[in-house]
Amino acid sequence: MKKRSIKNTRINTQVQRELSNILRSGIKDPRVAPWTSVVAVEVAPDMKTSKAYISVFGNEKEQEDTIKGLQSAEGFIRRELARTLNMRNTPEIRFVLDQSIEYGVNMSKKIDEVTKDLKTEGEEDA
Question: Where are the domains of the chain?
Fold first, then answer.
């Protein structure tokens, strides 16, 4: 099966949705931050492994603790995925910290600051 096939895309979406539900309702580990979201999931074409890109809203310590908490709960998460998904093999999950949302928020703040400065300069000229 090709990496970008329709079946693989559908499985990626389904695993992402179920993983989000498990993180929202099933994880009781205090290390996992409440503002944790699953940005994307890439399941390998052989359905044995997957990468889950996780975004955590918080400082670096909260992000590291969340990844460690998710890694320790991987067995529970795989069991819940196997229970909810109808797949022959439940993929092993590797959690990867995704900082794209945090990067976007920082860039948006910088753009707002620059445009605010431009507006105040325009008002002074008038």
Answer: 6-99
